[in-house]
Each structure stands twice: as structure tokens, then as C-alpha cells.
Amino acid sequence: MTLEEKLIKLQEIQQKIEQKTVTLSESIPLLEEAYKLKKEIEKELQEMENKIITLTEKGEVSEN
Q1: Residue 10 pLDDT exceeds 90
Q2: What single string gives the DSSP state of each residue in 14-45?
Q3: Are 51 and 61 within 8 A, CB to CB?
Q4: 46-62 in b/e burial notation, b at 16+ Cβ within 10 A?
Q5: The CA-based dihedral angle spanning residues 33, 34, 39, 45, taken in that order and rounded to the nearest 10 degrees
Q6: CB contact at 8 A, 21 and 12
Q7: Radius of gyration of the chain (CA)
Q8: pLDDT tens sequence across 19-43
Q9: Whole-angstrom Cα distance, residue 51 to residue 17?
Q10: Between helices 24-57 and 3-18, what is the axis angle to 10°?
């Protein structure tokens, strides 16, 4: 799943919970999935940030 797909899925879960279209017992697995997605997204964003910093420090990215 791409980063964009994970963000969309996370948003869908948020909407389901906010709109109260799921029962309390159904919301627990959704919250677990949301937490897992959040951790994966944070990890990917951190990796991207590290790559950008590395490339910038090497002068391989122009700062226009």
C-alpha cells in the first residue's frame, strides 16, 4: 500500500468513527488499524525526510 493509500484509508476510518456508522465493538479493530497505519505513515515520512536531508547536505538537491 502506498503512502497516499494509507492516508486515504486512515481518513476513511476517521470518517466512519466520527459519523458513528460503526458500533463500539466494530470501532476497536478500526482504531487498531488506524494506529498501525499512523505508525507506518510516520515511519515513511521520517525516512523521506532523512533522504531529503541527506540529498540536500550532499548538494544533490537545488534549493530554488
Answers
A1: yes
A2: HHHHHTT-S-HHHHHHHHHHHHHHHHHHHHHH
A3: no
A4: eeeeeeeeeeeeeeeee
A5: 130
A6: no
A7: 17
A8: 988 998 999 999 999 999 999 999 9
A9: 35
A10: 150
Q: 33 near 40, Cβ under 8 Å?
A: no
Count the neighbouring beta carbons within 10 Å of the beta carbon of residue 37. Answer: 19
Report the C-alpha gap between 33 and 10 in whole angstroms: 8
The C-alpha cell at 4 is 497516499
Please state the pTM of the whole predicted model: 0.77
Which three three-digit cell numbers place residue 50? Answer: 532523512
